[in-house]
Fold this protein.
Amino acid sequence: MAWVVLFVAGILEVVWAYSMKLSDGFSKLGPSAVTLGAMFLSFGLLAVAMKSLPLGTAYTVWTGIGAVGAFVVGIVVLGETVSAMRIFAAALIVSGLVLMKVSSPG
C-alpha cells in the first residue's frame, strides 16, 4: 500500500509543478491555490509512505516520478522541445526508479 501512496504523491508533485507554471509566478489565484493544495497533499502522502519505506527509496521515487512526469507534461501539454538526449535522460531516471523499487523491501 505504501507504494500506491508514494505513486499518488509523485503524481501530485507533477500536478503542483504544472500548476506552478500556470500560476505565472504565483500571480494567478486559481493555479496558485492548486499548486499549494497539491504540494500539501503530495508532501503529506510522501510522509505516510515513509512510515514503511526507506527514506532514500521513497524520496528518490517521489522526485523521480515528479521529474519524469513534469518532463512528459512539458512535452505533451506545453509543447516543449523533444530530443533524443532528453528522452535518454528520462529513460535513465525511470530505470533508476525501477531499480530502487526492486531493491527495496515493502
User: Anything to note?
Assistant: Residues 55-76 form the longest helix (22 residues). The chain is about 80% helix and 0% strand. Residues 2-102 form one domain.
